Every structure is written in structure tokens, then in C-alpha cells.
Amino acid sequence: MNKRIFKILIAFVLIISLITVSAATFYKFQTSQAIKVATNPNTDKKFIKWVEFNASYAAMEKALSLDVKSHDKPVQLHWVELLAYLATKYGGDFKKYKAKDMDELVEKLNNGETIEQLTSKMKYYNYYYEAYDAILGNFVGEYDIQVKDPNNSENKQWVKKYGLKSFSPIAKGYSFSHYDDFGTGRTFGYKRKHLGNDLMGSIGTPIIAVESGIVEVMGWNMYGGWRIGIRSFDQKRYYYYAHLRKDRPFHSDMYEGKIVRAGDVIGYLGMTGYSTRENVNNITTPHLHFGMQIIFDESQKEGVNEIWIDVYNIVNLLQKNRSAVIKDDETRDYYRVYDIIEPNSGYDF
């Protein structure tokens, strides 16, 4: 073989090897950067310090569908496990998502392999499972809900269901638009990142509790205007609804400490905020700022270790479940039409 050609081939092989090693090293670095764990000095409890959630709508919708369809089947597919497996496989980057990857995983599970067996050598699976379970774990489950009585449309009856039991933050029948604006810049007060998703709609649109929980904060904030914060019963999720309507921002039944059900009306869309003075419309476009904070340790609730996730695809997924509402002309408040009971919530509604 010509010596020059041989040298070129050797150089080519070395370059390919270098690229392969560099890619693997970058993948490990990228993944290790996402896996951040801290320890609470007061309790010695280790907890997740950071989560970058970017599961695609397509992946979540498919995993949700597989979970619901497999309920009461010999092999129950759990959507959080499916998503956590793929997150581990992709190093947390769902831009790599392919439906066939989930299909291959489901085929193995249906053929008798367990998720424990399939993830035994996946170093970061437990991290992704804990993170994704904190975000999505309570979205799906068994519940009882009212529906129209098929024999009398004026009556309701209770039915047992399994599936998506969290609701869209915008009531059924009310339109809105949004785009993925998480992390964009904000300058009022100080430069900061936008830690939520803005849902543009009409003033007075009823705002819905996404999940059952306890009203933790309610009142005025110079950045969020009239806002309300609801903590999930397991304490892992804090839902933040901001820029509510001037004069009548909250449902009249709301107060700090109140227990709310998923699907309840909690307030009304507006454009308040960006003012040190209460009850001022300084937002130019009516919208709901909707944010979700993930809390693994109480030290993360406020301060430098706060974890806010991108909820854009979650909002899209929640359009599958919207709460129908009706106005009470006497109180001028809106109320949900169909009530819900979550048997395993730990709270007696």
C-alpha cells in the first residue's frame, strides 16, 4: 500500500477515535452537570439540587396513553418510569426522542423484563426517576368524578376513572395562546429569567387549580401583581399563578390555608403587577403567569436553590383535561360544574 495513503488512513482512524471519545466525554460531562445533589446540614438529608425538565409533548402524551391503556392489564406501564428511562438514555435531552425507543422499552416490559432489570446498569436512572416523579407522579391515578347522567342531562352521577387527574390552569371553553418563554429575560426591578409560562387570554377568564393542595400564599407582589401559590399535599410541587385581575383577583372562597381540589376555580386572569402600589395594571398584555417549583427539601422553597421548571409542554398536555365552569350571577364568581374526589390524597374532602 502506498505509504502516503496508509498515513492518511491512520490519521483518519485517529480523528474518528478522537471524535468518538470526545462525544462520550461530553455526554458524561453534560449528564453529570445535570445531576446535582446537595445535603441539608441540619438533617444530613441528601436531596436533588437541580432539575432541567425538557420532556417533549410527544413523549409525555405517548407515555400517558400507554399508562392509561395498560391499567388493570397483566403488565402495568407507568408513565414516569417510561419517561425516566428515556431521560437517562438521552442524558436528559429529549431532543433525541424517538417513538421507537419507547416502543422497544414497552416491548421488553411486556415480554417479562422489569424496569429494575432494564435500569440496573443505568447510573443516573434513580436520579431521573426521583426528579420526574416529583414533577409528574401525582398527575395520573384513580379518582372519582361527576359526569352527566346519561338518563337525565340535568342530573350528575359519580364514576370511577383512571388517568390524567390534573387540570389545565385555564377553564374549559376559554381560549388562550402561549409559547415557550421559559428563561427569557425580564428587567422590571432587576434583570432576571422568566421562571414560568405566560398564557395570554381575556381579562376575567377563570383560573383553575391544576392539582389539589393547600393555598400557601395569596395577595400582592410587586412583580406578580395579585397572585396565589398552592402547594401539593406531598409538598413537592408549588404552583404559582400571577397577574390576576384587578379589583376581584381571587375567587371569594379563597384564603391562605384553604384546601382546594384539582379543577377548582381559584381566581381570574388579569394584568396586574410591575408596581409597588397594590391593585395596579402595569402589565401591557392580559395573561396568566403559570409557574411550577419543585421542592425536594424545604430549604429550597425560597432562595438560591429554588428549582423552577419549564411547564410549556406540561400546559399543552393538560389541555386533555379542562374543568367546566359556571357563573353564579348572585356572587359573580365562577364554580366548577363537576366535582372530583381523590381517594388516595390523604385529605378528607
UniProtKB/TrEMBL annotation:
<keyword id="KW-0732">Signal</keyword>
<feature type="domain" description="M23ase beta-sheet core">
    <location>
        <begin position="193"/>
        <end position="293"/>
    </location>
</feature>
<dbReference type="Pfam" id="PF01551">
    <property type="entry name" value="Peptidase_M23"/>
</dbReference>
<protein>
    <submittedName>
        <fullName>Peptidoglycan DD-metalloendopeptidase family protein</fullName>
    </submittedName>
</protein>
<dbReference type="InterPro" id="IPR011055">
    <property type="entry name" value="Dup_hybrid_motif"/>
</dbReference>
<dbReference type="InterPro" id="IPR050570">
    <property type="entry name" value="Cell_wall_metabolism_enzyme"/>
</dbReference>
<dbReference type="GO" id="GO:0004222">
    <property type="term" value="F:metalloendopeptidase activity"/>
</dbReference>
<dbReference type="InterPro" id="IPR016047">
    <property type="entry name" value="M23ase_b-sheet_dom"/>
</dbReference>
